[in-house]
Amino acid sequence: MKTTVFIAVMVAGIAYAVGVTVLYERCNENKCVSRVSKCQLTGACGCTLDNCTCCVNCTLCLAELWDDCCSCVNMCKPRNMSATDMASYSTIHDLLFNALTEHDKPHPDAHWTVERVTPQEEGVILPGLAGPDNSESRDNSPVESSPSTKPATSTAASANETIVPMDTCTVAYINICLGLKKCEDACEHMGAAKYRWFHTGCCECVGSTCLSYGKKKALCRDCPND
User: Coiled-coil region(s) at which residues (predicted)?
Assistant: First the structure.
């Protein structure tokens, strides 16, 4: 009997611990509660991803805590999504990324800078266009990856037709140096479809309309690029 009670208590304790861990992975209350409360009281974070009217103001208010605290205001990728949820999530995050990169010169307090990129600058060879410049330094070779499985957007009615981009490719460079995992998280939380991480620590978040992985140059403002 005592053994049974002991096992039951242990199971309950483990379940509680796992629940607490998941909770704090979703929203680090110790780290975020003060800033999140301020942002919610001022109305800076009073919207949702599918109605992204406050997205820019919310990222500016959370500032350097955005990556750690966006889950507290329901603007991070939810866990354990189905395929249907993932498709909806990708659409919503396109809206977030578009909102954050709408202006070529973001708010002075923003922690990113925006670049518009041509297919040539992406290294995409299209019929009728000059080939890409492949003069980048090997020491600056990037790691390229995608937080989502959403393909780059392009149109072609047949194999003989010219492939043309539907929209301008937009990328956002995080101002400061980041590690690879932090770069992935930062781009995910901005709503980017992909990211490019340079070995210098420069992090480039790539929009869903880009045909490849954005610009092949490290242009982070406050991160050494050589």
Answer: none
